Structures are given as structure tokens and as C-alpha cells.
């Protein structure tokens, strides 16, 4: 059984990330604490719980587990081809839309994946009173995959490279998009604070995403034109934090980007 290594309490991370050594006031600290990934079971990191419309309909909340889909499809399938927003709440999906074959309904039609139409009504597969069964499925799935101490305990980039998972890149005919030669060299970003430089790999992100996933909505595509790019803004869910606070490995896994650092907050 894989070890359930977790990050130290979020407050430690907040103290390090606060800019200039100035103390945050209580309300600002509370906002940051809400954005930091939970230190709970691996299986629940990256899950998106949707309650607003389900509560109005008198149903259990919808729990969307990214890991279930990520093992079969790259991020670009849902976030480019199916038009799901990168941030929770951006899409505003309704039951009427997916029963007409949009969004989730493209696959969840009773043929590709389980459906919610009258003939194949499996509402409980998404509307969950408890995630215990889902958690158990995750533990079984994760057992043979490359490990990480953060997020959901899976090193997804390593799993993709070694063939442990082979997600398809399109729901239509498989497409191959050439990767620009000049982007193969990792991008080195200097830092103003006393920590190591950041190493960013376009190639690792391009393996599962599309250029339009990040540019221009999250990052301006022009060189040096992205302003206010700081650790603080990332922790608040901007820039890298759009994914690396909620789904991809969390930002307290410092050495994944700051190669010269140790993960000083790991137990």
C-alpha cells in the first residue's frame, strides 16, 4: 500500500509565501488558506464538488474526479474540444445541456461511458452522498503508478512518460500536433526572492494541453508581458495556480519547479 505522505499544515506555507516578510491580516490569511489544497486523502485531491444546482434540485452534489478522466484523456480533450472552462464555475453546465449531448454528454451517452438518459439512468455515479467507493477505486488505480508525496500521490508526468497511462489526445480521430523545436529547451525564470530559479517545461505541458489552454487567458503570450507574476498571485489561483492549486501537483511541492530547493514542508 502506498504511503500517505502529506504536506505540513497550510499555515507554514502561507508564512513563507507572504511577500516582503509583512504579516497578513486575518481576512487576507483566511482567503489564502481557502485556496491551499486539502491535506486529506490522496483520492480527493483534484475532485470538484458541484452543489449549487443540485441543492436546488434536491439531489446529492456532483463529484467530478479528475483522475478518473485523466487516465483516459489528456486535459485538452475536455478543456479544448468540449469547451470546459479552466476555472470552476466558468462553464455553467446544466442537465439539459448534457442530455442533449453537450459537455459531459458527449461521452456519457450510455455508449462511450455510462449515461443518465432514461434507458441508462445512473445518476448515483455522479451524484454522491459519500465518496468512499470512489476513494477505494482510486487506491486500486494508483497502486502501480509512479509516486509523488503531494497532490493525489501520483506523478502524472512520469506516468505519461513511462507509458503507465496512455490517454488519448482527441475524442475524434487521433491528432498529432508538432511541438515547436525552439520550445524544447526548458524556460528558466529568475526569482527576486532567495530561492532557486524556476524551470518551466513547455514540452511536458504540451503533452497534455494545448497552447490555447494557457495563452492568452492565463498567460499573455508576448515575452515579458505577463505582469504581477508572483508567488502570492499564484497561490490565489492565478497564472500557474489556476491548475497547480486544485488539480495538478500543488505548489507546496516546491522542488518540482524550483529544482534546487528541497521540499522543506514534506513530512
Task: Describe this structure as you would to a colleague.
- It is built from 12 helices and 4 strands; from the N terminus they run ααβαβαααααββαααα.
- Strands 1-2 form a two-stranded antiparallel ribbon. It has a two-stranded antiparallel ribbon with strand order 3-4.
- It has 267 residues and is mainly alpha-helical.
- The protein is globular, with a radius of gyration of 19 Å.
User: How do the helices and strands follow one another from N- to C-terminus?
Assistant: HHEHEHHHHHEEHHHH
Biggest sheet details: 2 strands, antiparallel
Distance between the terminal alpha carbons, to the nearest Å?
18 Å
**Number of beta strands:** 4
Low-confidence stretches: 3-21
- Shape designation: globular
Strand order, biggest sheet? 1-2
- Give the strand content: 5-15%
Helicity, as a percent range: 25-40%
Number of helices: 12
Q: Rounded to an integer, what's the Rg over CA atoms? A: 19 Å
Structural class: mainly alpha
Integer average pLDDT: 81
Short précis:
With 267 residues, the protein is mainly alpha-helical. The chain has helices at residues 10-17, 26-35, 52-56, 66-70, 75-81, 95-99, 132-142, 156-161, 202-206, 211-214, 231-235, 241-244, and strands at residues 47-50, 62-65, 187-189, 198-200.
